[in-house]
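Schema walk-through. Below, the input block comes first and the output block second. Nothing else is stored per chain. Lengths vary across the set, and this one has 175 residues.
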Amino acid sequence: MSYFFIQDKTVVQTSLPPAGMAPFAQRTEQLLPPLITTLHRNFQAWGALGLSPGPVTADRIWLGADGQLAFRFNRSAAPAPLLQIGQAPELAAWLVLLDKWMETFVVIARARSIWTVGELGAALTFMTPAFLPARLVAQAPDNWARVALALATAVADGPLAGRSADRHWQSIGER
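--- output ---
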């Protein structure tokens, strides 16, 4: 097994899971809206480097407490260059994956703050079981259609106005 993650805009490979990271399924209780934004940014970093992390399925992803992402690869496999269509297929799977543990509205609203309308629209093209990883589609709940509808609505709404300050997630003493 190999694990790949991005650190300082560079892909790093390790033979063991990165320190402080745990399998995605063990970190789902931490998936609150501010962390979803960080995860979107960290996932987008793969595309910014022109790389695909491979099939986006929970069993391949490791998460750090602060939203760090690592992807597990078997044997000598490694991240591949993105297809000419960009990160759209991976983004579609990413949105479906996150939606299995977080409300659809949050996943899409937070995605709108990271990706352009064009990038989200391109992902919509791949938001069907024919293009999504089979293991992801088979994992409950069956949510791809709900995510596709929410994504289509967001794309039709156009660019997100303003930026979130996450004030609603601060404790009263911090305000």
